[in-house]
Amino acid sequence: MPPSVIDHHQDAELSNNEAKEFLLSLPKERGWRTSHLYLFQNFWCQPKEIQAIISLQKHFQAQENDLLVATIPKSGTTWLKALAFAIVKRTHFNTSLSKTSHNDHPLLSSNPHDLVPFLEYKLYANGRIPDLSTLFHDQEPRLLATHLPFPSLPSSINSSDTCRVIYLCRNPLDNFISVWHFLKGMRPKTLPSLSFEDGFEMYCRGVVGFGPYWDHMLGYWQASLEQPQKVLFLKYEDMKEDISVHVKRIADFVGFPFSLEEEKNGVVEEIVRLCSFENLKELEVNKSGKSIACFENKSLFRKGEVGDWKNHLTPSMAERLNKVMEDKLAGSGLSFKKYVPV
Ligand code: A3P
Predict the structure, then answer these.
(1) Of 146, 174, 273, 325, whose Cβ has the fewest other Cβ atoms within 10 Å?
(2) Does the structural domain 51-329 have CATH classification 3.30.1330.40?
(3) Closest ligand 1 atom, CA of 303?
């Protein structure tokens, strides 16, 4: 894609005609839940998202201490949003799930996506240019989220020394399975069906929302090496292995470390329980409603396990995706535990 096309269109929001013309100029591939995905700024996305992304890149102004949760879809975004919210707001609300005390913690009555909104899916979606000073009145830090790759973040985030970005990714085998389950039911009947094998093929070629997956990871990985005080790079599997350690890491990173007294009083464990899959999944608010347009809240909580790919991928599929990732991540220092085909 010629850079001049992107640059030109980043200067202004697109009129309908311009938008159509612009879309026609982009490489496209068969989509997962829309007819096509388009390669915009070197990642795959849907037309609606492109409009929102152009708008937020133009209008969003980072503020000192903004905290951005960044992920590729189906890597544990909902979990990380809940944790970030619970950690940062822990002195405002009761984090205990004890039945003996009344608890009005927002995570018990709101989906994490309502508490930590997406820039592209919520705040700047559908042509909106939000007044963030009203929306986030008196809130510091502002908690925001995105699926954008690092190089496409609004320039005011990239140039700020004080914004923080927490990035979460996941081993691609489980990520693919999670994407597959999430999107398969959403494919409109008007589109030709997409088989599991087709989806796998697309994923291995990097054709998935905000992918290629490896580029997404490598962008944030590199940034975390260059600016460790700004970008914290996390993996879902590590969090599952020892979530308490990660809650403390996140708290340190965002500048809200736990005091000795908090640790003694079990606040870390309370937050772990509050944000756990088991707790969030069973809440009324997460069993119904749609906090992100088009997606049922309940579909955000499927299994929450490491290694579910073993129930779905053949050994040769697992081997192939492992090999793709090994090749793509070679020399970067980033790796995932080897998932040996069974
Ligand atoms: P599975 O489909 O493997 O179950 P995202 O939030 O980015 O959409 O990611 C969704 C994945 O995270 C799903 O994985 C979902 O079950 C899992 N998940 C959601 N909430 C979780 C939590 N509190 N703890 C761990 N995993 C969670």
Answers:
(1) 273
(2) no
(3) 4
